[in-house]
């Protein structure tokens, strides 16, 4: 399915950057070739520097894109939103206090059950799907935030995505432990023994249509997906495996991974796929994808950024926008 892309943001900022790069002899796409919805900036913006003005501009652009996705007229409604990276500090400087774009998207859409998932390998046909149980919170708050109810909510969200959008009748999901060695029977942290094992037993009954493996020690959890991602000898070339397959085989990744906190899930994802990783927000009434990298202020406006992840985010949004 071919998509029609509309850019949302400041036309003047992009045109000025385009003209400057052209004068410098760089070959860049002419912004006039795209459909635009102009969101003018309210103050001076210096490329490569986060400020209250740039935070206000990115917040306004996101809200305008959400307006399009929530448009009541089907003929004018956007089918997907692909967001560029933001600087959270700039949002705060502009008076917008959100952990990230995902929370603003969920607020505007009126949903409480949402999450982020990451994936796509340029080396093989295998897909890495990782959902984070917690996202942008301090590490010290992770153990306090995780609860059986939260874990069930995130797991249910992930399984619905795997079954409805990925066509996996019996998905295989690997669930990370919280502590090193998954607590080693309470010797290195007690959360697994205190409630995670009991929760997992109940989850297997509640979600009997899925194979749930865990809690898998966080360090060894990523061995199989690493092999499947890079195409090691014998590695999987598909995101799915036969029902009943042995859990966590070195040559075969799971259909999805439930990581418990930000760095536990994103360090391995970015190590494997920094230039092509994509995140998608599950649970929204519209498709949302985004590159899985930051703002890279040090190269902003220089025309040297690697656009692979943005291209992948657009491609994934187009692929998810199916009848």
Structure, described:
With 323 residues, the chain is α/β, with parallel strands linked by helices. It has two domains: 1-110 and 281-304 and 315-323, Isopropylmalate Dehydrogenase, CATH 3.40.718.10; 121-275, Isopropylmalate Dehydrogenase. The protein is built from ten helices and ten strands. Helix 1 links the parallel strand 1 (6-9) and strand 2. The longest helix has 18 residues, at 52-69. Residues 236-251 have low confidence and may be disordered.
Kindly report the CATH topology of the largest domain: Isopropylmalate Dehydrogenase
CATH superfamily descriptor of the largest domain: Isopropylmalate Dehydrogenase
How many distinct domains?
A: 2
Q: How would you describe the shape?
A: elongated
Question: What's the alpha carbon Rg, rounded to whole Å?
Answer: 21 Å
Overall residue-averaged pLDDT value: 89
Task: Quickly list its features.
single chain, about 325 residues, Isopropylmalate Dehydrogenase, eight-stranded mixed beta sheet, two-stranded parallel ribbon
What's the quick description here?
The protein is of the alpha/beta class and 323 residues long. It contains ten helices and ten strands.
């Amino acid at each position: 399915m071919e998509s029609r892309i509309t850019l949302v943001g400041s036309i003047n900022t992009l045109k000025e950057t385009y003209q400057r790069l052209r004068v410098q002899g760089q070959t860049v796409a002419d912004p006039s070739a795209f459909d635009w919805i102009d969101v003018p900036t309210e103050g001076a913006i210096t490329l490569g520097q986060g400020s209250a003005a740039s935070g206000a501009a990115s917040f306004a652009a996101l809200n305008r894109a959400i307006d399009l996705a929530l448009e009541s007229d089907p003929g004018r409604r956007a089918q997907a939103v692909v967001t560029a990276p933001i600087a959270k500090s700039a949002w705060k400087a502009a008076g917008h206090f959100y952990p990230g774009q995902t929370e603003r998207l969920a607020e505007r859409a009126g949903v409480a059950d949402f999450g982020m998932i990451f994936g796509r390998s340029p080396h093989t046909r295998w897909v890495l799907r990782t959902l984070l149980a917690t996202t942008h919170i301090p590490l010290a708050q992770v153990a306090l935030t995780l609860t059986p109810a939260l874990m069930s909510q995130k797991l249910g969200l992930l399984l619905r995505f795997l079954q409805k959008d990925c066509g996996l009748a019996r998905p295989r999901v690997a669930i990370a432990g919280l502590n090193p060695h998954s607590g080693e029977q309470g010797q290195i942290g007690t959360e697994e023994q205190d409630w995670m094992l009991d929760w997992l037993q109940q989850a297997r009954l509640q979600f009997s249509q899925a194979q749930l493996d865990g809690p898998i020690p966080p360090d060894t959890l990523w061995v199989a997906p690493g092999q499947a991602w890079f195409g090691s000898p014998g590695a999987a070339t598909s995101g799915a495996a036969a029902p009943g397959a042995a859990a966590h085989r070195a040559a075969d990744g799971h259909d999805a991974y439930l990581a418990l906190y930000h760095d536990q899930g994103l360090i391995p994802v970015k190590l494997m796929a920094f230039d092509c990783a994509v995140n998608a927000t599950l649970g929204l009434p519209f498709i949302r994808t985004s590159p899985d990298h930051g703002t890279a202020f040090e190269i902003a406006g220089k025309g040297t950024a690697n656009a692979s992840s943005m291209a992948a985010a657009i491609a994934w949004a187009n692929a998810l926008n199916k009848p």
